[in-house]
Amino acid sequence: MSVSSGRRPLPTKIELIRVKRSLAVARSVYKILEDKRDVLLKRIDELIQQAGNAREEMSAPLADAYRSLFNAYLGVGPAKLESIAMTTPTQVSVDVNVRTIVDVKVPTIAIAEKDVGLTYGFADTTSSLDDATKMMRTVLPKICKAAEYENAIFSLARELEKTQRLINALEYIIIPGYQDAMKFISATLEEREREDFARLKHVKAVLEKKKEVM
Description:
3 helices
């Protein structure tokens, strides 16, 4: 009978052995989950640091790229800039792989190495536009790396939440349930042993009296 069902277990020695084994397994799983939680917390802290560094590395280049793009906007005008933008590829080739962190699969993103070159002519453009284009291509891998770290943080945080729920279930429901079942079975068996002992003592006294009469 399952202890988690809330019903009283069978007060037998076999059931007591089964509950003891289940309790031992539950405690072992609890220790494993605690270790996993500690590792997850450590890895999340490391990823948060790495994500912060990645954001810092892309912040200045991205600001420079937008500054150059703004200067290009002022130099060639919005209509010309939008016309040039129409010639820019709308997709970027990326290599997506999967790595495992504490049993959690997280994707890795890398810009595919490809020499595209400028997609517009030099007539009626400015050096600011060239700078903005080159800077954007330089900072794009840094943006992908920051996104990779942040996605990994969210994935590990979800796994941490699930692990903590299991730990709580073991600590507050499953393990106490097995402990209560053991106490109930042990108390019942001890009570039966006392009753059997008293019964045997009574039978022995009756038999001795019969012998005296005979």
